[in-house]
Write the structure tokens for this entry.
Amino acid sequence: MTNSIQILGPRGNTLSVTATGSGPTLFLLHGFPLDQRLWDSQWSSLGQSHHVVAVHLRGFGNSTLDDASYTLADLAEDVEFLRRHLAGEEAIWLAGLSMGGYVAFEYWRLFPSRLKGLILTNTKPTADDEAAQQSRLAMGQKALEQGTWSAVEPLFAKMLSGQTQASRPEIVRLVKEMMQNVPPASIAAAQSAMAQRRDFTPMLPGIHLRTLVVAGQDDTIAPPEATRQWAQQIPGSQFEIIPASAHLSPLEAPDQFNQMVFKFLLG
Ligand code: MLT
């Protein structure tokens, strides 16, 4: 069973999490343009041994946007506020998918002593070039002018592998529903924050934490070979590729993903 928790944030904003289980705390950060339901296949498995907390990032799920603009460092501050509230003095495991991974890198930069380890899935440490920044700002503008779905629809085809799209209608439905549910202002704010994100590539050798890096075999947003190369720069990190999965490995291949994470957490 999961609990939905809403907490008044430091700026009067509402921060929400979905949580289950007890034991060492594992925070989960979803990708864009999704919400905490990305982790629906993790509860029953990882919640058996861990206190699992899925954050609704600012403007997504039940967390309010409030300010029209924020940075990924602000989202890392939100995570720290929630960690203090829900885990006290305990250091946490932190898992992030794609945009959630960008926030996890920021959290590591700002609060390294609060971390036991990192799980970076379907993500990358690089910053955007100018063309990518412009296309993010254009998507944000389109969402504001024409609505969320017309702006984010081109991303849908990249989210799931061909196999998932052909054989898992419930996942196709869930992903579309998550994408359609995001308010246009949240699309614009997140794209602007991601466009300004820092390049973590030179900092990778400084990550002295247990780290698991996961890639989907068919992920074109965070391709596996590029992921292998940056993962090798994190000292002692573990790198895994999940077959038959594109950008949303925890949803598309939950058994393999959960086993990998479970082994890593208990290893
Ligand atoms: C995500 O899944 O969070 C996005 O693909 C991140 C991005 O747009 O870079």
